[in-house]
Amino acid sequence: MNSYLICTCHWCHVMAKESFQDNEVAEILNKYFISVKVDREERPDVDSIYMKVCQSITGSGGWPLTIIMTPEQKPFFAGTYFPKNNVGEALGLIAILEYIQKAWKDNKAQLLKEGDSLLDIINTLNKNSSGELSQDILKKAFLEFKQNFDTLYGGFGGYPKFPSAHNLLFLLRYFHKTKDAFALEMVEKTLESMYRGGMYDHIGYGFSRYSVDRKWLIPHFEKMLYDNALIAMAYLETFQVTGNKKYAKVAEEIFEYVLRDMTSKEGGFYSAEDADSEGEEGKFYMWSQEEIKDILGQEQGSKFCCYFNVTSQGNFRGKNIPNLIGNSILEEDVQFIKNCREKLFKYREKRVHPHKDDKILTSWNGLMIAAMALAGRVLNNSKYTLAAKKSVDFIYKNLIRKDGRLLARYREGDSSFLGYADDYAFLIWGLIELYETTYNPEYLKNALELNQNFLEIFWDSENGGFFLYGKDSEKLIIRPKEIYDGPTPCGNSAAALNLLRLSYLATSYEFEDKVKQLFENFADEIESSPISCSFSLVALLFSKYPVRQIIISAGENINEARKVLDMINKKYSPFTVSVLYSHLNKELKNICPSIEQYIAIRGKVTVYVCENFTCKEPITNMDLLKEVLSSDS
């Protein structure tokens, strides 16, 4: 028999300590089972398949995911966390292993039969039916978000509360098109509450993975790269929509954390930081009131504690998680808080740090590349653009084979695992954002080449959509194809948006047919729970409304062109794509031959604004351009 433990979470560490580092458990496992511990971030294909198994058997899922299967990979037992010994009527791991070993010996045929039956169920669940999305699916999703919205503290549903920033990205676009003010209100309330709560690290910056309570006060202290990338995008886009600089400031603080603590010397971004240090969850991040007053002095310490709700009793296990719930920093105290934070940060740096997961994952790097590139153009800060470029350079040096095949994970000089759908989709996303920030045709060329590779290896030619793993990968008991978003957008959703954007950037309109097939393939699943597929609805919005193409033909007036680009980038224009053609990037015509027809009239920077395959009169007057851009896009 095989026993699989699929994990990367707090309870995985608990189970590892209680059971897998225990001699008594190890003796049973080694005698009767072949044990395999799977990192679900390295093998999302394995995780996806056997999570479906667990949900089918138990009605729920989670991690650590414990699976027991036959040597042919057919599972017959599944569960999540098990204590070592029995607790009340609940069986512990030892009792479960002994029971299964006896059943395997005495009634093996029945277990094999159960494994076959379960595999039939999983194969049935894995089949996508074809259909069409209803006309009101976008409104239906909005109303579901509205119904689930926590009007007091923001976020959706009960607790634990996850940031799920892709939900906010959908609501921002929905607001942009419908002007329904409540869509924006949900976004702003959520972002404001997340920042004020303890889920945000007010001393060292960056967001933890989720909050265990309704107020966003007490986090699961683990910090994930993907969360911080997606959350930063939500703050940046909300800054564009509202013009409120507080959202830009939070995004800048997230990037300060990532560049300081989560970036390798070579430019790749690390995966995560653990919740625990010195065997205690959150110890690194918590403070006593006395400790803060000792560091800052009585007067300043008291003032800081008042702002950040730090009390003698504490708000978590007798200590304090600094937070701004119910408080706002006065303008005259901004510098005071900055000085206090710096002193506390220096002091905290001397503590034992949580373990850093220094895996460099292609998929999560793709998300942070997208976030950094977006920040580079929205905030007009080349530091972020450079960080995005360096990560792309790292991936092309270490995680793409000579034949163009993308790999999933790099660590300590070792590049492993054939890339999955998310690796392709998120990296292509990052390359598109980097192109629209730098207008270097190389990034558009790379995005198109990767996209072609992605289609060749992952596309379901019979039904449409992308499989989770490629046709050249290890064959598992099923080949899943998914549309539901998890903590990150689903690979199919991100791929759909990529295909649409590339179709307009490179005038490859055949990509739109692929997107149509993809939506038809997943229609039933999207209809059944639209808020679980919010990023696919981001792509659907892009496909349903007229897309504006802006072609800037600059000739040799690149500095004048930059003024035009600044004008474009200040606006929130999620249904606009822009291309720059100048003497510095003439190779763009090799990617998009039609670009040569867009000439710089009389040597002036000339802007062509096109919608529905029709271009307006070329614009050389910047005041007129400003007027055109101010119309809805």
Automatic annotation (TrEMBL):
Limits of the Spermatogenesis-associated protein 20-like TRX domain: 7-121
SUPFAM superfamilies tied to this protein: Six-hairpin glycosidases, Thioredoxin-like
UniProt-listed Pfam families: Thioredox_DsbH (PF03190)
A GO BP annotation: carbohydrate metabolic process
PANTHER family: SPERMATOGENESIS-ASSOCIATED PROTEIN 20
Protein name, per record: Spermatogenesis-associated protein 20-like TRX domain-containing protein
Species, as recorded: Clostridium kluyveri (strain ATCC 8527 / DSM 555 / NBRC 12016 / NCIMB 10680 / K1)
Top-level taxonomy: Bacteria, Bacillati, Bacillota, Clostridia, Eubacteriales
